[in-house]
UniProtKB/TrEMBL annotation, chain A:
SMART domains: PlsC. Pathway: Lipid metabolism; Phospholipid metabolism; CDP-diacylglycerol biosynthesis; CDP-diacylglycerol from sn-glycerol 3-phosphate: step 1/3; Glycerolipid metabolism; triacylglycerol biosynthesis. The keyword Transferase applies. This is Glycerol-3-phosphate acyltransferase 3. It comes from Lonchura striata (white-rumped munia). Keywords: Acyltransferase, Endoplasmic reticulum, Lipid biosynthesis, Lipid metabolism, Membrane, Phospholipid biosynthesis, Phospholipid metabolism, Transferase, Transmembrane, Transmembrane helix. GO terms for cellular component: endoplasmic reticulum membrane. PANTHER family: GLYCEROL-3-PHOSPHATE ACYLTRANSFERASE 3, PHOSPHOLIPID ACYLTRANSFERASE. The gene is AGPAT9_0.
Automatic annotation (TrEMBL), chain B:
SMART domains: EFh. It comes from Lonchura striata. It is a lipid-anchor. It holds the Pfam family EF-hand_1. Coiled coil: none annotated. One of its GO terms (molecular function) is protein kinase inhibitor activity. Keywords: Calcium, Cell membrane, Cell projection, Cytoplasm, Differentiation, Lipoprotein, Membrane, Metal-binding, Myristate, Nucleus, Protein kinase inhibitor. Residues 110-145 form the EF-hand domain. InterPro entries: CHP3, EF-hand-dom_pair, EF_Hand_1_Ca_BS, EF_hand_dom. This is Calcineurin B homologous protein 3. It comes from the Eukaryota. The keyword Lipoprotein applies. It is found in: Cell projection, Lamellipodium; Cell projection, Ruffle membrane; Cytoplasm; Membrane. GO terms for biological process: cell differentiation.
Length: 372, 214
């Protein structure tokens, strides 16, 4: 097997030799017992490790960042490291946490003092930005913005990869956006309701089919009005753990208009920003974030892209996705983020079988059924 | 808090029996916990959560193989309802690559074990023979995705393959002789001289992802 066909993952090194090369080997157009070997090997690889499920849990780090939640197996190695870890705990829980909570309370009370009735555009934008900046300071997150000249100036759709609700906070501290998002309950719902008061956001229910058309209509209307704020959309549709970019849903790319891609990459050494909504509630997540070392991230504003004439929405979405992934240094996966909650569609399985059939049976006619 | 230098006794025993290193066993244990959702055993339903497995045409047979008692080196026959971590490792060990320090006898035994695993995948009724019907089943499963393929074509492929197998194993058959099925010895004969080691192994890495501190 040529070295370039092996891709390194955590537990296993996958063999990416394409099916054609592996199965054909001896002769085209004939079936062989060995073909079952190829598929059973692929099956074993999938059981040992699969690319998709890995993205829905926190990234495994090569070198520990002294947060016990990042290390699945705690073993004792030396007293020195243990002492450092305990000091770390003291600092994080007794120093950073109260300080940040205090700052958070200050932030909310100060902004709350603004007079309620004045919903003049400029003032409410400033309020939003200050709010977000204070929020980001609470997390002691040095955020590095690159290529600010590419920031969306007037209208348009802003598209970014999604890791956590903090993405919104970070982007909002540097510019004003209208948001499109899933309706949440609980604390998150309260936050959303209060945001709705300052500017025009679009909220929907993920499972509602009718809602999707409605949302698309609203987005179209929104960007048609140049005076409105640019819309911020996360086409992955769910939080991914920041090591790869998953399938971009084509909905937002069909609407037309200019797309401003933004790449967001968190530094995992200081804290884990990924929100595993199936595992943690927003409160647990907030607590985790407030007790990490810091949330450090890099934000790159990429040059605007427009859909070409003959291009279809899916292809355009893939193009944007590739640009974002390349900038942030993440891998590209064609899988749907919805797999976090749903199962794989039947059509994927059939695709694989069709390919195999084509190899074994050439041009729709049966080979001579040789065992090779 | 980093990697342990002392390995618990049961881990060492597992390592000896299955041939994995202790780091690989730890990795696989984490994977096991992920699949079983922190339970002690895995059931068939847990394999539904692996998207990569979904588009494998012989998915059913692979999952079946994990629960097949013959593969679990238990004396009894039939299917287990659930498997624990040890069983999981046992099945995974069938896909280990050959090691440099294996001698002739070990190599031969290893190869035989892999072929036996494959044989069990074909022989779904556990009678020790691959009959024509079982062979057809496998071919149909592999080729079922193609809408242009009629059942007849899949059958004729299987039939042709069986005839070929018969000629290798039994030699020339008389017109009224019936070939009952491929036994394991015949199966081994068919594979003589063919190198399966590279086809049927998964490269397990030796990466240690836990920090060291000096």
């Amino acid at each position: 097997m040529a070295p370039e066909n092996l891709i390194s993952t955590g537990i296993i090194q996958r063999d990416e030799t394409p099916m054609e090369k592996e199965v054909v080997g001896r002769c085209r157009g004939c079936f062989s017992l060995a073909d079952v070997m190829y598929f059973s090997k692929k099956g074993c690889e999938a059981v040992a490790e699969d690319e998709v499920t890995r993205r829905f849990s926190s990234e495994e780090l090569l070198s520990w960042n002294l947060l016990s939640r990042t290390n699945a197996n705690l073993h004792h190695v030396s007293w020195k490291l243990a002492a450092v870890w305990v000091t770390g705990i003291l600092i994080r829980y007794c120093l950073l946490l109260p300080f940040r909570i205090l700052l958070l309370m200050l932030a909310t009370t100060v902004v709350g003092q603004f007079p309620n009735g004045r919903v003049k555009g400029w003032l409410s934008n400033q309020v939003q930005m200050i709010c977000a900046t204070l929020g980001v300071r609470c997390l002691s997150g040095p955020v590095h913005f690159h290529n600010r000249e590419n920031k969306p100036q007037e209208g348009g759709i802003c598209v970014a990869n999604h890791t956590s609700p903090l993405d919104v906070l970070i982007l909002a501290s540097d510019g004003c956006y209208s948001l499109v998002g899933q309706v949440h309950g609980g604390l998150m719902g309260l936050i959303q309701k209060s945001c709705m008061q300052t500017s025009q956001h679009v909220l929907f229910e993920r499972s509602e089919m009718k809602d999707r058309h409605l949302v698309r209509k609203k987005i179209r209307e929104h960007i048609a009005d140049k005076a409105k704020l640019p819309i911020l959309i996360f086409p992955e549709g769910t939080c991914i753990n920041n090591t790869s970019v998953m399938m971009f849903k084509k909905g937002s790319f069909e609407v037309g208009g200019t797309i401003h891609p933004v790449a967001i990459k968190y530094d995992p050494r200081f804290g884990d920003a990924f929100w595993n909504s199936t595992k943690h509630s927003i409160m647990t997540y907030a607590f985790n974030v407030l007790t990490s070392w810091a949330i450090v991230c890099n934000v790159w504003y990429l040059p605007p892209m427009v859909k070409e004439e003959e291009e279809d929405a899916v292809h355009f979405a893939d193009r944007v996705k590739a640009v974002i992934a390349a900038r942030a240094g993440m891998s590209v996966l064609p899988w749907d983020g919805g797999l976090k909650r749903k199962k794989v569609k039947e059509s994927f399985k059939e695709e694989q079988q069709k390919r195999y059939c084509q190899i074994v049976i050439e041009n729709g006619s049966v080979g001579n059924g040789n065992v090779c | 808090m980093g990697s342990a230098h002392s390995v618990p006794a049961e881990m060492r025993e597992l390592a000896d029996r299955t041939g994995f290193t202790s780091e690989q066993i730890e990795h696989l244990h984490r994977r096991f916990k992920q699949l079983s959702q922190d339970q002690l055993t895995i059931r068939k339903e847990n394999f539904d959560s692996i998207p990569d497995l979904e588009f494998n045409p012989i998915r059913g047979k692979i999952v079946h193989a994990f629960f097949d008692k013959r593969n679990l080196r238990q004396e009894s026959d039939g299917l287990a309802d659930e498997i624990n971590f040890e069983d999981f490792l046992t099945i995974m060990s069938y896909f280990r690559p050959i090691e440099m320090n294996m001698d002739e006898e070990q190599l031969e035994r290893f190869r035989k074990e892999k072929l036996k695993f494959l044989f069990h995948m074909y022989d779904s009724d556990h009678d020790g023979k691959i009959t024509l019907q079982e062979y057809r089943n496998v071919v149909e499963e592999l080729l079922s995705g193609n809408p242009h393929l009629e059942k007849e074509s899949a059958r004729s492929i299987a039939d042709g393959a069986m005839m070929e197998a018969a000629s290798i194993c039994v030699g020339q058959m008389g017109p009224d002789q019936v070939y009952e099925g491929i036994t394991f010895e015949d199966f081994l004969k068919m594979w003589q001289g063919i190198d399966i080691e590279t086809k049927m192994h998964v490269r397990f890495l030796n990466v240690d992802t836990i920090a060291h501190c000096y």
